[in-house]
Design a protein that fits this description.
alpha+beta; about 240 residues
Length: about 240
């Protein structure tokens, strides 16, 4: 009889586990996140090797109103012979929209790089002298890929341990991806009141594709709220 009762308990427990929503299970245990697969490409060569194309937007809010919107598109356009070398050709287009400022024409830049060494750079169709271009290359690319640099500073394992973690499927461009969502509160270490991060599973790696946050008042940040979203992405 005791053995039978134990079996009943085990069966009921198993049924509860099988009928639980996976979202609930993940919300109880952040170990459902394969942290070792998380990738935030910040090295230029890593970005070249990873992406054929990506497009994202970032919206900043101040006093409850949209203060600025940044849209960035990156394209890897293959190898091209420039000045006697086979160089990687990168195309970057960005536009900023702010209230009262007319920025209808996007800014365009083209880079040719040979093993991370700048060979040629065009800005708005005008070639920039190589000495000048080389000094501003890193700053420009860091500005273009600033979300990745920001994400790299986040300790997601620590944040997830005290956050609500759920999973779902969402479309990015024309493709559907498995998404892990982390909703964190009181992220004082980062000057944030709250932050919601979404990680997309690209099979070989997982990457941040969305980040909405509200800053702490005492952080005295320029913007009180920010929304980052990856709109399109194509891998190499």
């Amino acid at each position: 009889m005791i053995y039978f009762k134990k079996c009943i308990v085990l069966v009921v427990l198993l049924l509860l586990i099988l009928t639980l929503n996976p979202t609930f299970l993940l919300a109880q245990d952040n170990y459902g996140i394969p942290f070792e697969k998380i990738k935030n490409p910040t090295e230029l060569q890593d970005i070249i090797d990873t992406f054929d194309r990506l497009k994202y937007n970032f919206i900043a809010f101040k006093e409850g109103e949209k203060a600025q919107e940044l849209i960035v598109e990156f394209q890897y356009q293959g190898k091209e012979e420039v000045k006697g070398v086979q160089a990687d050709k990168l195309f970057v287009e960005s536009s900023i929209k702010s209230p009262g400022i007319n920025t209808s024409k996007p800014s365009q830049m083209i880079f040719w790089l040979d093993d991370d060494e700048l060979v040629k750079m065009l800005q708005e169709g005008q070639e920039i002298p190589i000495a000048m271009a080389d000094t501003i290359k890193e700053k420009i690319l860091q500005a273009v890929f600033f979300p990745f640099y920001h994400f790299k500073e986040l300790n997601l394992k620590e944040i997830a341990s005290d956050s609500k973690v759920t999973n779902s499927q969402e479309m990015i461009g024309e493709k559907e991806f498995d998404i892990i969502e982390i909703e964190g509160n009181n992220l004082v270490e980062y000057g944030l009141k709250s932050g919601t991060m979404k990680l997309a599973d690209f099979d070989k790696f997982i990457m941040m594709v969305s980040f909405d946050y509200i800053t702490l008042e005492e952080a005295e940040a320029e913007f009180e709220k920010g929304e980052f979203e990856m709109i399109e992405i194509e891998l190499r």
